[in-house]
């Protein structure tokens, strides 16, 4: 039997207590134990970025963390981005409007990465976006429409805040 | 589950971490996890015990003391990237850290993890070489310092004992107004560099070089100082033609051959990147960060 531990984590605002094998990755915990399959696993060694979640508001690869390390921490996954069940986050809406995804596999990691980027830098240049998503691989879009969508989302989020 | 079976330990202080290290065979320290976790996921390493340092108190700090920066082993690369004191006192590290991986990996990756993993082209390792850093190591007999020059003993092998752990590093700062540059060539942004060059320069009132540091990463088992070039630069006025001659000598540096590039390609990169780094450093002499 694998060694286990009981952990308490807050995921998308909801507190969970669970017993996990100590060698379970955070990504597998989210997907298999909490059923939050929006977090995708591509490479499982920290290259593709599909499993990116926000840990205490900072983006991190959930395949490169153990679930036990998340004990006491706050996690946001792609399921927690939208304000409610029927409204998309402005970033998600911009991806929809500008065809910022095709197969959608990389999208959860790109959205979570961009949530952090747009929070820290509400007025990004195209270059900022390209560097920001350089740790996320996408095989469909060629990145162009992802960048367009991210810039548009920044504009809409700024307008919504009433900024000049 | 991808990682192999292991026992997990999360000590709260350095003494307990050292105690655990001393009592186990085949234990691995887990810092930011950006190298160890992939190796666990791929089962390249099979530790019986993983000792997680993320809940150890007192290993995350950036302090300025006696003309040097002291940085804790568990300081995240992110904290170095956004540190005003690092940008002001150690602009080489500030420039290098932005080339370390990606935002998502810098948010977790640590200074101590980078130093101990000791990848031959890791940016922070090159910075430690460039600045003659001292690495603080704790063991059951207390704390000792290792000069960076003696820190790498072989490919990805630091000079720390199995029951020791790195607690931090001291980076002596160069005077305000020194020139600096960190340039690298990687296939994609955020990848480990094939070759990198880190340059530091001080010049006198006549713009002649009085002190130089040049470090090449990615050439051999660990970053190396190009001591002959450093000596040749003293007393020189930096200009492109002369630099080209001096840096050409780097073509005879030993270099590794691997799937990323043949040795001759690395030697070519060493001459070009060193020239670019030194020119950039020269242009920055006298400018305030």
Give an account of the 3D structure.
The complex is a heterodimer of chains A (164) and B (289). In chain A, strands 2-1-5-3-4 form a five-stranded mixed beta sheet, sandwiched between helices. The radius of gyration of chain A is 16 Å and the shape is globular. Chain A is built from five helices and five strands, in the order ββαβββαααα. With 164 residues, chain A is α+β, with helices and mostly antiparallel strands. Chain A has two domains: 4-80, Roll (Ubiquitin-like (UB roll)); 90-160, [2Fe-2S]-binding domain (DNA polymerase, domain 1). Chain B is α+β, with helices and mostly antiparallel strands and 289 residues long. Chain B has three domains: 7-45, no CATH class; 62-172, Uridine Diphospho-n-acetylenolpyruvylglucosamine Reductase, domain 3, CATH 3.30.465.10; 179-284, CO dehydrogenase flavoprotein, C-terminal domain (Enolase-like, domain 1), CATH 3.30.390.50. Chain B has helices at residues 14-23, 36-41, 77-81, 84-89, 91-97, 103-106, 111-117, 123-130, 227-233, 240-248, 263-284; strands spanning 7-9, 27-30, 49-52, 62-65, 68-72, 134-139, 142-147, 152-154, 157-158, 165-172, 179-185, 195-203, 209-217, 224-225. In chain B, helix 10 (240-248) runs antiparallel to helix 11. The longest helix of chain B has 22 residues, at 263-284. Chain B is globular. Chains A and B meet through strand 4 and helix 3 of A and helix 2 and helix 6 of B.
Mean pLDDT of chain B: 96
Counting copies of identical and different chains, the oligomeric state is heterodimer
**Run of helices and strands of chain B:** EHEHEEEHHHHHHEEEEEEEEEHHH
Distance between the termini of chain B: 48 Å
How many strands, which pairing sense, and closed or not: the largest β-sheet of chain A?
A: 5 strands, mixed
Q: Say how many strands of chain B there are.
A: 14
Task: Output the number of helix runs of chain A.
Answer: 5
Average of per-residue pLDDT values of chain A: 96
Strand order of the largest sheet of chain B: 4-5-10-6-7
CATH class of the largest domain in chain A, anyone? Alpha Beta
């Amino acid at each position: 039997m694998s060694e286990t531990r009981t952990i308490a984590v807050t995921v998308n605002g909801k507190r969970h207590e669970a017993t996990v094998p100590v060698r379970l990755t955070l990504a597998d915990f989210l997907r298999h134990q909490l059923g939050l399959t929006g977090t995708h696993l591509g490479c499982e060694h920290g290259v593709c970025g599909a499993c990116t979640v926000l840990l205490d508001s900072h983006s991190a690869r959930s395949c490169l963390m153990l679930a036990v390390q998340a004990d006491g921490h706050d996690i946001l996954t792609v399921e927690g981005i939208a304000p409610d069940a029927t409204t998309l986050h402005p970033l998600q809406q911009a991806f929809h409007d500008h065809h910022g995804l095709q197969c959608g596999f990389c999208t959860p990691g790109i959205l979570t990465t961009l949530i952090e980027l747009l929070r820290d830098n509400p007025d990004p240049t195209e270059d900022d976006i390209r560097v920001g998503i350089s740790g996320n691989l996408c095989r469909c879009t060629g990145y162009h429409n992802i960048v367009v969508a991210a810039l548009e989302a920044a504009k809409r989020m700024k307008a919504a805040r009433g900024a000049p | 589950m991808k990682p192999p079976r292991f026992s997990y330990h999360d000590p709260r202080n350095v003494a307990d971490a050292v105690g655990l290290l001393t009592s186990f065979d085949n234990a691995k320290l887990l810092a930011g996890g950006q190298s160890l976790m992939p190796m666990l996921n791929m089962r390249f390493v099979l530790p019986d015990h993983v000792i997680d340092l993320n809940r150890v108190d007192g290993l995350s700090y950036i302090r300025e003391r006696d003309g040097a920066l002291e940085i804790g082993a568990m300081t995240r690369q992110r904290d170095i990237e956004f540190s005003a004191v690092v940008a002001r006192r150690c602009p080489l590290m500030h420039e290098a850290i932005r080339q370390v991986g990606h935002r998502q990996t810098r948010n977790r990756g640590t200074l101590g993890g980078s130093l101990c993993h000791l990848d031959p082209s890791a940016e922070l390792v090159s910075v430690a070489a460039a600045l003659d850093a001292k690495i603080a190591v704790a063991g059951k007999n207390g704390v000792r310092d290792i000069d960076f020059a003696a820190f790498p003993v072989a490919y990805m092998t630091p000079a720390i004992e199995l029951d020791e752990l790195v607690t931090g590093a001291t980076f002596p700062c160069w005077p305000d107004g020194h020139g600096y540059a960190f340039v690298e060539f990687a296939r994609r942004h955020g990848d480990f560099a094939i070759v990198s060059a880190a340059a530091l320069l001080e010049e006198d009132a006549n713009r002649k070089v009085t002190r130089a540091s040049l470090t090449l990463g990615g050439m051999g088992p660990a970053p190396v100082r190009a001591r002959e070039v450093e000596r040749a630069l003293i007393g020189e006025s930096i200009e492109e033609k002369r630099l080209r001659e001096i840096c050409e000598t780097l073509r005879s540096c030993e270099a590794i051959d691997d799937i990323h590039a043949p040795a001759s390609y690395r030697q070519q990169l060493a001459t070009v990147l060193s020239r670019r780094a030194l020119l950039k450093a020269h242009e920055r002499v006298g400018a305030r960060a």
